[in-house]
Design a protein that fits this description.
Blueprint: H1 40-54, H2 57-72, H3 78-91, H4 107-120, E1 124-136, E2 143-153, E3 160-170, E4 176-178, H5 185-195, H6 198-217, H7 219-240
Antiparallel strand pairs: 1-2, 2-3, 3-4
Helix pairs in contact: 6-7
């Protein structure tokens, strides 16, 4: 990521929780039949093939095109926008993070994610002035939420602007939630492309400028941020060992 698109990372204040949903595949054993038997599926397939042979080529192409278009036609509706905005408001509730806003393969994973997020938010009193820009993810019904806010740290007067990139996916019931970041090169490239968009790049610039101004204004905030940065650096080095 270039300097223009740099996002300040302040411990839990700027949390990039990016996720992606995994597709589930199942195999069905073929039914055994005697050489002389014909099942219903075989009859249906033969009728379909016969019908297709009688169709003009341009008609067939139009049908296939319509099917592909239907698959890619999902949009960010007003209803989806409202649902994601409400989700993110709950996600940034410091008092008690509700596990329902998180998506995990198991309940154990959800609880672990909650514990990690809560630990990273230690020292944060609240998130204020939360704003969101929503874009499509790589998979159908997944979304990327570029979220900005102002962080109030405990015993520090000045609010610190921050930003997160959250990846939103539906759970098994179809309800949207936030999940952990997978190691996915295509997803990373997609997010970098979105960060280059004029509207989102301007958002990043505004956050970085506001953050720099805040730490220049408040020595206590600057000292606190430097401490967090050092702790994060040490933690990263420890994890590499």
């Amino acid at each position: 990521m270039n300097k223009r698109n740099k996002i300040w990372m302040i411990s839990g204040a700027v949390l990039a929780a990016i996720l992606i949903s995994a597709a589930a595949f199942s195999s069905i054993k073929a039914r055994k039949s005697s050489p002389n038997s014909i099942d219903d599926n075989s009859i249906d397939n033969r009728m379909l093939e016969a019908a297709q042979e009688e169709m003009p080529e341009d008609t067939l192409n139009a049908l296939y095109t319509d099917e592909a278009a239907a698959e890619d036609s999902w949009e960010i509706t007003d209803e989806i926008t409202s649902e994601i905005e409400a989700l993110i408001q709950k996600y940034y509730t410091v008092e008690d993070l509700n596990e329902e806003v998180l998506v995990g393969d198991t309940e154990k994973e959800q609880k672990k994610a909650k514990q990690e997020i809560t630990a990273k938010r230690d020292g944060i009193e609240s998130y204020q002035d939360i704003k969101v820009i929503i874009r499509k993810g790589l998979e159908k019904d997944t979304y990327i939420a570029f979220t900005t806010y102002k962080t109030r740290f405990i015993n520090i007067e000045t609010l610190a602007p921050g930003m997160s990139v959250l990846y939103i996916v539906p759970n098994e019931e179809g309800k949207l939630g936030v999940q952990d970041l997978p190691k996915d090169k295509n997803l990373e490239e997609h997010i970098n492309d979105l960060l280059a968009e004029k509207e989102i790049a301007a958002m990043v610039e505004k956050v970085n400028a506001g953050f720099s101004k805040a730490i220049d204004k408040d020595e206590n905030l600057k000292t606190f941020v430097e401490k967090l940065s050092e702790e994060a650096k040490q933690g990263s080095q420890k994890n590499k060992k």
